[in-house]
What we know:
Strand content: under 5%
Number of domains: 3
Structural class: mainly alpha
Order of helices and strands: EEEEHHHHHHHHHH
Strand order of the largest sheet: 2-1-3-4
Mean pLDDT: 82
Shape: elongated
Low-confidence stretches: 142-146
Distance between the termini: 130 Å
Amino acid sequence: MKKCQHCGAPLQDGDRFCQACGAEQLPEEESKKRICPECGKWIQADGKFCPFCGAELPEMDDDEPVIDEATGTETFVHKHREPVRDEEPPRSPQPMERPVMTGRPTPPPFQEPPFYVRYRKGIITAVVVLILAVAAAVAFHFYGSRSSGDYVKDAVSLSQQLSSENESVTDTAKRLSQKSKGDDVDSLVKDLGKSRKNVEKMAKNYQPKNIPDQYASDDQAIREVMRDQMAMYDTAIAIAENPKDDAISEKLDDLRDEVQKAKKTARTIKVPGADFTGAVDGDNLVSYLEKYVSVQTKPDETPQPEVKADPDKQVLSSYASSKDLFNDDIGKLAGDINAYLSNHPDFKGNREFTSRANTLYIQISKTRNQLENDTSIDNTAMKYKLDALFQAEQDRIRGLYDGVSASQRGQDYRPGFQRGQAASNRYDKLNDEWNNL
Length: 437
């Protein structure tokens, strides 16, 4: 049975107007369809009420397409037609009968799901992957930075503890040097042994959970420094226990070599804020023990005065060794700077060389302070000559630092390097004089 295209009421064959609502019935080929906004089903475009859910239909927007049921094409020409009324008096409204649906209408074959429906799974997958990637990056940054920060903090703390223990050993050696011949030194020897055990305990307890890759070589150097520090103290204890040993000179030489080796290793550690050179800075330790041995082995009778060209040269030998090590480090820094310049026009963006120069400068300053405060050296003239050499080395470093810094600011690096070269020439001259003493 035919139904009203407007309200869905039953029609008799041949009815041109609906007896229920009076709407004109268009030919089948002019029938257009739209989607009900309430139930989402396809309905006639010219209806006022949905035949399925009974909802009142709003007027169609100009941009709402209508579907030609015969051809299956979309159009935006709605072709609304006003119903043609006969001159008969208006009929009283009759209750509309809700049509009985015999089946669900089949959507047109050309209907395509919306974009978000067709690609919903892909969109959801992409969003999930993006969220996981961001979460992984944040976690890596947070925990990686935290792990690196914890390691640096532990290394700085360890360097401070080791340096404090080395200061205690140096102070004990100083008290040994003040002892007269035949005085009891057992308590001081025990103090040296306690410091040695403390360093050994620190070495055993040093077990970092996570070692960042950039500090792997530094970590190995830290362990080597602790081994060197214990070896230094073992030699110092042997000297303090038996200053009259026939091989005492060899033991003092061994201690001097151990100090220089340990300091060289400590300078390779680049953990920010951790200075392990203080843990093995044994120049004063060597000087005090040399004086201690000299007092303990002094003959009872008054010896005939001997003419000594340089009585303090041997005492200053440990400082001279430090001078030579600093000179090697400065030469390597200058060589690396020249190699960098051969492949780069300037030093913009480079912070390595200024950092290395600053570290060297601070280390030389510490050595100069120790030399100045070393009361075991009586020959002040030789102290001044050695201090002048350290000053020349610092001037060389300052020239390199100023040149690199100027280049980083877009200025000419040559004036700074020229000052560094002048200081290098002055150092060579002073060093020749020192070696001829």
